[in-house]
Design brief:
Elements: H1 3-26, H2 28-34, H3 52-62, H4 65-68, H5 72-81, H6 96-109, H7 111-116, H8 127-134, H9 138-155, H10 162-169, H11 175-192, H12 201-220, H13 229-245, H14 249-269
Length: 274
């Protein structure tokens, strides 16, 4: 895919994240009164997303992404590595997008293990233990969970290919599924951070976090700093902006639109032609 096509796709995804958050906020009040329960993926587990055969093929294909990208070639090699014929990739009706989505689902579902398993904070403590001993509030926990999720792109080896994934997700037919998974990620992060509010803020928090995560992930694809230091700074700036705008639905919608334009400006400042 040419550089111009990639950057147009990144711009589409960035602006769509802002547009989705804005439109979501506009319909929240009605939905809040229509629903008597909230959704948390940890409380209401989803049925298995993939069959055993699909999981084997996609898991093997992910290991090929660093070398071959999010491509049909990775899927074919993954099928062979898993002991299947290359024609078995026909089990995946959405083709390469299934590989992107598999990574997203795998990383989201793995966040809980990152919280309760031994963390990179040291001393053999889990992230949850670090939070509790340091009396880290919900906001600080949200920040660390976003960074843990972004770390998943690095540790899995796909961060260098993630622009390809963003371009695939930005295709019109895949935008609904992509933004739906983004919303699930935001919900999971708030839940793991200990947020239990069931009022109107339930929706605005998830809309704003979806925008923040999408913006930071786009930035990460362009970050050449050591250990993605600039990505952490970018995330902190977006969180500070959100605190400045407040949590009202109108403020979140305004901030989301502002952030969507900011992503484009940041990418331009890093030499990307958009």
């Amino acid at each position: 895919m040419s550089t111009s096509l990639k950057t147009r796709a990144l711009r589409t995804l960035a602006r769509n994240a802002a547009r989705t958050s804005s439109s979501t906020c506009a319909s929240m009040h009605t939905h809040l009164h229509q629903s008597n329960h909230s959704y948390h993926s940890a409380s209401y587990p989803e049925p298995p997303s993939y069959t055993p055969a699909e999981s084997m093929i996609l898991s093997a294909a992910l290991s090929r992404v660093p070398s071959h990208g999010f491509t049909q070639r990775s899927l074919q090699l993954g099928a062979q590595d898993a002991g299947y014929l290359t024609i078995s990739t026909n089990l995946l009706p959405r083709g390469v997008f299934e590989l992107v989505l598999y990574h997203l689902v795998l990383q989201r579902e793995g966040l809980k293990d990152r919280v309760d398993g031994e963390s990179s904070a040291g001393e053999g403590k889990s992230l949850r233990e670090v939070w509790e001993q340091g009396k880290v509030g919900v906001g600080g926990r949200v920040r660390s969970l976003i960074l843990e999720r972004l770390k998943g792109n690095v540790e899995s080896g796909v961060v260098g290919r993630w622009q390809e994934a963003l371009a695939i997700m930005a295709q019109p037919s895949y935008i609904p599924a992509s933004t739906g998974e983004l919303w699930k990620l935001a919900d999971e992060i708030w839940f793991l951070a200990g947020d239990t509010a069931l009022d109107f803020s339930w929706y605005t928090k998830r809309a704003s976090l979806s925008t923040i995560y999408a913006a930071t992930e786009v930035f990460q694809t362009q970050d050449q700093s050591t250990d993605f230091r600039d990505t952490r700074r970018f995330l902190d700036a977006r969180l500070d902006e959100l605190r400045t705008f407040g949590a009202a639905s109108s403020a979140v919608a305004e901030w989301a639109n502002y952030t969507g334009h900011s992503i484009v400006n940041v990418l331009r400042s890093k030499g990307v032609r958009i």
